[in-house]
Write a structure and sequence with these properties.
Blueprint (H helix, E strand, L loop, with lengths): L5 E8 L4 E3 L2 E2 L9 H11 L1 H4 L2 E8 L3 H23 L2 H14 L31
Parallel strand pairs: 2-4
Antiparallel strand pairs: 1-4, 2-3
Helix pairs in contact: 1-3, 3-4
């Protein structure tokens, strides 16, 4: 999760296909920050993704928030796949590599939008006070 964007990754044995909402990850928009979604693959190496298929469902939020949610779900899915189907030692190595690069790949950002209050136009800003 990132802001209002939620991404769910489904990881299974396969040929190394990574798809986001049914499209290959290479066609992800916006193209200027497409590299961000590749980060888990680039850090851990293609050979770790060679025998797994990843299907990612993403909804909500803006395009950048969705991209961050995608990269986090890919990283988390691979770690949990390694824990369940491979071995604990390999999982620990993956986790270590991801955490040393960027903590947000495994740990969700807890910041959320603050609700608006009365007496102002936003969460913190108040209407201007006038005496006459």
């Amino acid at each position: 999760r990132k802001k209002n964007a939620v991404a769910v990754a489904y990881c299974k044995e396969g040929k190394g296909v990574i798809k986001v909402n049914g499209k290959p990850i290479e066609l992800l928009e916006p193209s200027s920050i497409r590299e961000k979604a590749y980060e888990p693959v680039l850090i851990l190496g293609r050979e770790r993704f060679a025998n797994v298929d990843l299907r990612v469902r993403v909804s909500g939020g803006g395009s950048v928030a969705q991209l961050y949610a995608i990269r986090q779900s890919i990283a988390k899915a691979l770690v949990s796949y390694y824990q369940k189907y491979v071995d604990e030692q390999a999982k620990r190595e993956l986790k270590e590599a991801l955490l040393t690069y960027d903590r947000s790949l495994l740990v969700s950002d807890p910041r959320r939008c603050e609700p608006k209050k009365f007496g102002g136009r936003s969460a913190r800003a108040r209407f201007q006070k006038s005496y006459r």
